[in-house]
Design goal:
Strand order of the largest sheet: 1-2
Distance between the termini: 35 Å
Order of helices and strands: EEHHHHHHHHHHHH
Number of helices: 12
Structural class: mainly alpha
Shape: globular
Length: 208
Protein backbone atom coordinates (compact mmCIF):
# COMPACT_ATOMS: atom_id res chain seq x y z
CA UNK A 1 0.00 0.00 0.00
CA UNK A 2 1.18 3.49 -0.82
CA UNK A 3 1.88 5.65 2.21
CA UNK A 4 1.23 9.38 2.12
CA UNK A 5 3.01 11.96 4.23
CA UNK A 6 1.82 15.35 5.44
CA UNK A 7 3.49 18.11 7.43
CA UNK A 8 2.08 20.24 10.23
CA UNK A 9 3.86 22.64 12.59
CA UNK A 10 7.23 21.29 11.45
CA UNK A 11 6.38 17.61 12.04
CA UNK A 12 5.97 15.04 9.25
CA UNK A 13 3.56 12.13 9.74
CA UNK A 14 2.55 9.44 7.27
CA UNK A 15 -0.85 7.85 6.59
CA UNK A 16 -0.04 4.97 8.95
CA UNK A 17 0.41 7.46 11.83
CA UNK A 18 4.16 6.85 12.04
CA UNK A 19 6.95 9.39 12.09
CA UNK A 20 9.48 7.50 9.97
CA UNK A 21 9.51 10.20 7.24
CA UNK A 22 10.07 12.90 9.86
CA UNK A 23 13.01 11.06 11.43
CA UNK A 24 14.57 10.38 8.01
CA UNK A 25 14.31 14.07 7.07
CA UNK A 26 15.76 15.50 10.30
CA UNK A 27 18.59 12.93 10.39
CA UNK A 28 19.62 13.82 6.81
CA UNK A 29 19.56 17.56 7.66
CA UNK A 30 21.48 17.01 10.89
CA UNK A 31 24.22 14.91 9.23
CA UNK A 32 24.64 17.64 6.61
CA UNK A 33 24.87 20.42 9.18
CA UNK A 34 27.27 18.40 11.36
CA UNK A 35 29.61 17.82 8.41
CA UNK A 36 29.45 21.54 7.54
CA UNK A 37 30.61 22.38 11.07
CA UNK A 38 33.64 20.10 10.70
CA UNK A 39 34.45 21.63 7.30
CA UNK A 40 33.87 25.30 8.12
CA UNK A 41 35.38 25.68 11.59
CA UNK A 42 39.10 26.37 11.62
CA UNK A 43 39.43 25.29 15.23
CA UNK A 44 39.85 21.56 15.95
CA UNK A 45 39.19 22.06 19.67
CA UNK A 46 36.57 19.42 20.67
CA UNK A 47 35.08 21.78 23.24
CA UNK A 48 34.37 24.44 20.61
CA UNK A 49 33.10 21.97 18.03
CA UNK A 50 30.73 20.23 20.44
CA UNK A 51 29.28 23.62 21.41
CA UNK A 52 28.63 24.25 17.72
CA UNK A 53 26.96 20.82 17.46
CA UNK A 54 24.76 21.55 20.48
CA UNK A 55 23.79 24.96 19.03
CA UNK A 56 23.27 24.15 15.36
CA UNK A 57 22.60 20.40 15.08
CA UNK A 58 20.94 19.10 18.22
CA UNK A 59 17.86 21.39 17.93
CA UNK A 60 17.10 19.78 14.55
CA UNK A 61 16.97 16.37 16.24
CA UNK A 62 14.97 17.45 19.28
CA UNK A 63 12.25 19.82 18.06
CA UNK A 64 8.90 18.63 19.53
CA UNK A 65 10.37 15.20 20.32
CA UNK A 66 7.54 14.18 22.72
CA UNK A 67 5.29 14.02 19.63
CA UNK A 68 7.46 11.78 17.44
CA UNK A 69 10.07 10.12 19.70
CA UNK A 70 10.58 6.58 18.34
CA UNK A 71 10.38 3.28 20.19
CA UNK A 72 11.94 1.16 17.44
CA UNK A 73 15.64 0.42 17.92
CA UNK A 74 16.31 1.12 14.24
CA UNK A 75 15.10 4.72 14.40
CA UNK A 76 16.66 5.28 17.83
CA UNK A 77 20.05 4.23 16.45
CA UNK A 78 19.51 6.29 13.30
CA UNK A 79 19.01 9.45 15.36
CA UNK A 80 21.91 8.63 17.65
CA UNK A 81 24.19 8.05 14.63
CA UNK A 82 24.40 11.81 14.05
CA UNK A 83 26.00 12.49 17.43
CA UNK A 84 27.91 9.21 17.34
CA UNK A 85 29.55 10.04 14.00
CA UNK A 86 30.26 13.67 14.88
CA UNK A 87 31.97 12.89 18.19
CA UNK A 88 34.06 10.16 16.56
CA UNK A 89 35.58 12.76 14.23
CA UNK A 90 36.72 15.03 17.04
CA UNK A 91 40.42 15.31 17.80
CA UNK A 92 41.86 12.52 19.98
CA UNK A 93 38.44 10.89 20.47
CA UNK A 94 38.12 8.58 17.47
CA UNK A 95 39.63 5.53 19.24
CA UNK A 96 37.34 5.82 22.27
CA UNK A 97 33.95 4.17 22.75
CA UNK A 98 30.84 6.28 22.23
CA UNK A 99 30.02 6.27 25.96
CA UNK A 100 33.54 7.40 26.81
CA UNK A 101 33.36 10.21 24.25
CA UNK A 102 30.09 11.41 25.78
CA UNK A 103 31.60 11.31 29.24
CA UNK A 104 34.62 13.39 28.21
CA UNK A 105 32.45 15.90 26.33
CA UNK A 106 29.93 16.15 29.22
CA UNK A 107 26.93 15.41 27.02
CA UNK A 108 24.17 12.78 27.07
CA UNK A 109 22.82 10.32 24.54
CA UNK A 110 20.13 11.88 22.38
CA UNK A 111 17.84 9.02 23.40
CA UNK A 112 18.28 9.92 27.06
CA UNK A 113 17.55 13.58 26.33
CA UNK A 114 14.32 12.60 24.56
CA UNK A 115 13.23 10.54 27.57
CA UNK A 116 13.82 13.56 29.80
CA UNK A 117 11.86 15.78 27.39
CA UNK A 118 8.96 13.31 27.69
CA UNK A 119 9.12 13.45 31.49
CA UNK A 120 9.29 17.25 31.50
CA UNK A 121 6.21 17.42 29.24
CA UNK A 122 4.44 14.95 31.55
CA UNK A 123 5.19 17.20 34.55
CA UNK A 124 3.96 20.26 32.65
CA UNK A 125 0.67 18.59 31.70
CA UNK A 126 -0.02 17.18 35.18
CA UNK A 127 0.71 20.55 36.80
CA UNK A 128 -1.27 22.47 34.15
CA UNK A 129 1.74 24.47 32.97
CA UNK A 130 0.66 24.02 29.34
CA UNK A 131 -2.73 24.45 27.65
CA UNK A 132 -3.41 20.70 27.66
CA UNK A 133 -5.85 19.04 30.03
CA UNK A 134 -4.34 16.21 32.11
CA UNK A 135 -7.63 14.30 31.75
CA UNK A 136 -7.11 14.03 27.99
CA UNK A 137 -3.75 12.32 28.46
CA UNK A 138 -3.58 10.55 31.80
CA UNK A 139 -5.54 8.79 34.53
CA UNK A 140 -4.24 8.73 38.08
CA UNK A 141 -3.81 5.26 39.52
CA UNK A 142 -6.56 4.21 41.93
CA UNK A 143 -4.32 1.63 43.60
CA UNK A 144 -3.46 3.22 46.93
CA UNK A 145 -1.05 0.64 48.33
CA UNK A 146 1.55 0.92 45.55
CA UNK A 147 5.03 1.90 46.57
CA UNK A 148 6.56 5.12 45.24
CA UNK A 149 5.06 8.56 44.82
CA UNK A 150 1.49 9.86 44.98
CA UNK A 151 1.36 10.92 41.31
CA UNK A 152 1.26 7.38 39.90
CA UNK A 153 -0.57 7.01 36.60
CA UNK A 154 -2.59 4.15 35.15
CA UNK A 155 -1.06 2.37 32.16
CA UNK A 156 -3.66 2.56 29.35
CA UNK A 157 -4.61 -0.46 27.26
CA UNK A 158 -2.94 -0.31 23.84
CA UNK A 159 -3.71 -2.90 21.20
CA UNK A 160 -2.12 -1.12 18.24
CA UNK A 161 1.46 0.10 17.89
CA UNK A 162 0.50 3.68 17.01
CA UNK A 163 -1.28 3.92 20.37
CA UNK A 164 1.34 2.01 22.39
CA UNK A 165 4.07 4.37 21.17
CA UNK A 166 2.02 7.50 21.82
CA UNK A 167 3.51 9.92 24.35
CA UNK A 168 0.88 9.47 27.07
CA UNK A 169 1.30 5.68 27.00
CA UNK A 170 5.05 5.22 26.61
CA UNK A 171 5.93 7.67 29.38
CA UNK A 172 3.73 6.20 32.15
CA UNK A 173 6.05 3.40 33.26
CA UNK A 174 9.08 5.69 33.45
CA UNK A 175 7.12 8.41 35.24
CA UNK A 176 5.75 5.93 37.79
CA UNK A 177 9.27 4.72 38.57
CA UNK A 178 10.68 8.17 39.26
CA UNK A 179 11.71 8.85 42.87
CA UNK A 180 9.11 10.62 44.96
CA UNK A 181 11.52 13.51 45.62
CA UNK A 182 11.68 14.22 41.86
CA UNK A 183 7.96 13.95 41.06
CA UNK A 184 7.03 16.10 44.07
CA UNK A 185 9.28 18.96 42.94
CA UNK A 186 7.46 22.22 43.69
CA UNK A 187 8.42 23.93 40.42
CA UNK A 188 9.42 23.05 36.88
CA UNK A 189 13.03 24.32 37.25
CA UNK A 190 13.40 22.21 40.40
CA UNK A 191 11.96 19.15 38.60
CA UNK A 192 14.39 19.62 35.67
CA UNK A 193 17.31 20.01 38.07
CA UNK A 194 16.40 16.88 40.06
CA UNK A 195 15.94 14.94 36.82
CA UNK A 196 19.65 15.48 36.05
CA UNK A 197 20.53 13.03 38.80
CA UNK A 198 18.08 10.29 37.79
CA UNK A 199 19.57 7.40 35.81
CA UNK A 200 17.42 6.41 32.83
CA UNK A 201 19.88 3.75 31.71
CA UNK A 202 17.31 0.97 32.24
CA UNK A 203 15.10 2.51 29.53
CA UNK A 204 17.79 2.98 26.87
CA UNK A 205 17.03 0.77 23.86
CA UNK A 206 19.71 1.91 21.39
CA UNK A 207 23.02 0.20 20.87
CA UNK A 208 25.77 0.80 23.39
Amino acid sequence: HMSYCCRGLGINIDSRLTFGPHINIIVAKAHLRASQILRCFISRDPEILIKAFITYVRPLLEYCSPIWSPSSVGYINKLESVQRRFTKKLKDLSALSYNKRLELLHIERLECRRLKSDLIMCYKILHRLVALSPDEFFMYSTVLHTRGHSFKLTVPNSRINARANFFSVRIVKIWNNLPSSVVNASSLPMFINKLKYVSLQAYILGKV
